[in-house]
Amino acid sequence: MTHPASTSTDPAAAVFEQHPARGRFNAAFFRIMDGYIDHSLRRHKQRVFADLPTEVVELGSGVGANLRHLRPGTTLVAIEPNRYMHARLRTAAARRGVSLQLHESMAESTGLPSASVDAVISSLVLCTVGDPDAVLAEVRRILRPGGSFRFVEHVCAPSGTATRLAQRVLRRPWAWTFEGCSCERDLEGAVRRAGFARVEVERYRLHTPFVPFNTQVAGVAWV
Questions:
Q1: Does residue 93 contact residue 99 with C-beta atoms inside 8 Å?
Q2: pTM for the complete prediction?
Q3: Residue 203 — φ and ψ, nearest 5°?
Q4: 140: nearest Cα among 179, 100, 190, 97
Q5: pLDDT at 136 over 50
Q6: Each residue's pLDDT tens digit, 188-201
Q7: Would you give the distance in Å from CA 164 to the centre of its chain?
């Protein structure tokens, strides 16, 4: 399947607020922290991103953290509304031999045809979207029967824990800094409720200074 190679301008797509300060900060932050984040998440990403096909749709590709999990020659259809990420994403894709088709659309409304792809991936993205349920419905819409959604996301900690308290206390500055990122979402529950035929999820905990980020899930959901 061929998608437009240029940036999408679908007028029906949801609107992303381009904030010059936060947009530039996040692009720089995730470039600088790439090695550290990869070290923390590598084992989980290697498991759920194993054996990806040669065309992959990624929600929130950012500056290209997941390109290392794609084979050279893969076509990446990148759904990335933050244009401050785009230059680094293009450079990283070219360096890794990945053909990039970049869409400046929102994950709730990708503009891609129904039942047109075999794999959709995301990492640390469902925490930032405005409507996770709408995003998951869109993922199901664009996946072919038998296709899979592979995800690595941070989620809310169990009630009554110190981590849950930290997530609640820090939720507003965390969300402002990281472009709407919520550290209080039950994303495992959202995926399980989304109507996929089968869902497998691993829960785990990181030990990093970024406490709201430490409770995580990684999994695969099949249509």
A1: yes
A2: 0.90
A3: -100, 140
A4: 190
A5: yes
A6: 999 999 999 999 99
A7: 22
Mean predicted confidence (pLDDT) in 108-117: 97
* Both structure tokens of 72: 């050279």
Give the CA distances from residue 215 to residues 75, 161, 204, in Å, rounded to whole numbers and listed in that order.
Answer: 31, 11, 6
Asked if residues 48 and 133 have their Cβ atoms less than 8 Å apart, the reply is no
**Quick one: how far is CA 16 from the chain centroid?**
15
> In which order are the strands placed within the sheet that holds 75-79?
99-103, 75-79, 55-59, 117-123, 143-154, 215-222, 198-205
The residue written with tokens 């929130």 in the block is 60
| Token pair recorded at residue 202 | 């691993």
Paired strand residues for 123: 152
Burial of 158 from C-beta contacts in 10 A (0-12 / 13-18 / 19+): exposed
pLDDT tens figures, 45-97: 999 999 999 999 999 999 999 999 999 999 999 999 999 999 999 999 999 99
Residues composing the chain: 223
Q: What is the dihedral of CA 137, 140, 141, 145, to 10 degrees?
A: -160
The CA distance from 108 to 195, in Å, is 16
Residue 136, token pair as written in the block: 């998951």
